[in-house]
């Protein structure tokens, strides 16, 4: 079982015992509003995705607070050729505490070294600029708008924004940190 520790967090594979805490996160429409999981709306939907995606997946991790052992979210890569598209979500009570950037910095190493990605991308809705700020804190570069989407409830058209980090840039930054 692969596990990464930061100062405050344990990043580890999702376990069967995470079911209830992860269900609360995924079924919170505010948390998943701009993620690929916004269509998971019922406990049965969640049960299916928990069994078929979150368990036994080498690119999906739970985010646990080290002191309390509370699962507060997840972080994952979706592979597209040699690119890892990252997705993350945190319980609302964990927002604004720097957890995603902390996890992201640690997970970049995993994505490049263990999953052999050449680049890692993160996408976010222009409606959620805080995600862009987090991606910048993770050392990623702003790609700007890459697509548009329609908000089903309102019909409004919004931008899909993206950030990227290449393996070469990550290696350069890693070497610079070691040299200091």
UniProtKB/TrEMBL annotation:
Under the heading InterPro entries, the entry gives: Acyl_CoA_acyltransferase, GNAT_dom, N-acetyltransferase
Instruction: Write out the GO MF terms.
Output: acyltransferase activity, transferring groups other than amino-acyl groups
Domain of life of the native organism: Bacteria
Start and end of every N-acetyltransferase domain? 9-166
Keywords for this entry?
A: Transferase
Q: Which Gene3D superfamilies match?
A: 3.40.630.30
PANTHER family named among the record's database cross-references: GNAT FAMILY, PUTATIVE (AFU_ORTHOLOGUE AFUA_3G00765)-RELATED-RELATED, N-ACETYLTRANSFERASE DOMAIN-CONTAINING PROTEIN
Name of this chain's protein: N-acetyltransferase
């Amino acid at each position: 079982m692969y596990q990464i520790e930061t100062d405050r967090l344990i990043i580890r594979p999702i376990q069967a015992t995470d079911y209830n805490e992860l269900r609360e996160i995924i079924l919170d429409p505010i948390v998943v509003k701009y993620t690929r999981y916004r269509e998971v709306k019922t406990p049965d939907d969640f049960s299916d995705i928990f069994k078929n995606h979150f368990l036994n997946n080498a690119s999906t991790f739970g985010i646990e607070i080290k002191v309390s052992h509370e699962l507060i979210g997840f972080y994952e890569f979706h592979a597209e050729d040699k690119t890892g598209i990252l997705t993350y979500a945190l319980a609302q009570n964990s927002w604004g505490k720097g957890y995603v950037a902390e996890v992201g910095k640690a997970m970049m190493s995993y994505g490049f070294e263990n999953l052999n990605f050449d680049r890692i991308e993160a996408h976010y809705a222009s409606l959620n600029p805080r995600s862009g700020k987090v991606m910048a804190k993770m050392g990623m570069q702003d790609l700007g708008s890459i697509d548009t989407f329609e908000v089903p409830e309102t019909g409004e058209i919004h931008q899909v924004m993206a950030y990227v980090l290449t393996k070469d840039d990550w290696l350069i930054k890693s070497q610079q940190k070691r040299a200091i």
